[in-house]
Amino acid sequence: MKILGVDFGTKRIGLALSDDGGSLAFPESIILNDKNAFNNIRNIIEGREVSEIVVGLPTDTGGEDTTATAQAKKFADDLQVEFNLPTHMMDERFSSFSVFSENTGKENLNARKQKMIRPVDVDAQAAAIILQRYLDSRNIKI
To answer: pTM for the complete prediction?
Structure first.
């Protein structure tokens, strides 16, 4: 069974899937956050036999809640109710920035310039980073 990673956004939603063993995360797709979003997610959940969902938790750099935090929490709650699957939140700080840096090698650009050259699939890649963090946190042996 696979785990679905979600990078929630008000315009787009990045999606990623784990391998069957729950060790590695891979970018899956980007969907629009519109009236068809849940149907698109349902198709992936049913088609890929997803057993769990992980949604990125947006906070500021200090870990404090932002306006996006409440929106992502509500979206995670809605996913849990709609699909009746265990749904978790995972810190998403710097996930999009990490993708951007890896793809461009330009870590020091301001936000405006980042948006101008932002890779199209950054949301799915960010979802994969969020999901990989979750998978790694589950696999830590103490």
So the answer is: 0.82
